[in-house]
């Protein structure tokens, strides 16, 4: 089929480009678009072609601020694969700003892959849910003092 031929051509083109010591600028721009883009199929080929790209981590880090949540998630996934400790602080900053669940999950995964202890993030999220300012008032007729864990029934 025509679609299969196009994919095969793309895969072969990236295989050839991966052998270049440095990608031609136009090819590099297309590879970056594919490596961080929403189409999943060409990602691994484009990433392989960009394996020796100069400033790769910094370029991927910039994608953590992209307007599309899938691009932000893809960037975080790629940073996890690369394992470059230089990505830790930018990932932490991006995570603090991130509102969407998919990129947030990818950022958590990337930080974990980079050896970052996630407990402070998880504790903070848990404590903000249970803080007095966000807790729902008890239903009418119920005691306002929280019961201890030991007095709760198991079900």
Explain how this protein is built:
By secondary structure, the protein is an all-alpha fold. 59% of the residues lie in helices and 0% in strands. The chain contains eight helices and no strands. α1 packs parallel to α3 and α5 (69-82) packs parallel to α7. The radius of gyration is 22 Å and the shape is elongated. Mean pLDDT is 83; it is low at 127-139 and 142-155.
List the helices and strands and how they pair.
Blueprint: H1 2-18, H2 25-36, H3 43-49, H4 56-63, H5 69-82, H6 88-97, H7 101-113, H8 119-129
Question: Which characteristics define this entry?
Answer:
elongated, disordered C terminus, single chain, mainly alpha, 155 residues, 59% helix
> Low-confidence runs (pLDDT<50, min 5 residues)?
127-139, 142-155
The run of helices and strands is: HHHHHHHH
Rg (C-alpha, Å): 22 Å
How many helical elements?
A: 8
Report the mean per-residue pLDDT as an integer: 83
* Helical residues, percent: 55-70%
Could you give the count of β-strands? 0
Summarize the structure.
The protein has helices spanning 2-18, 25-36, 43-49, 56-63, 69-82, 88-97, 101-113, 119-129. With 155 residues, it is mostly helical.
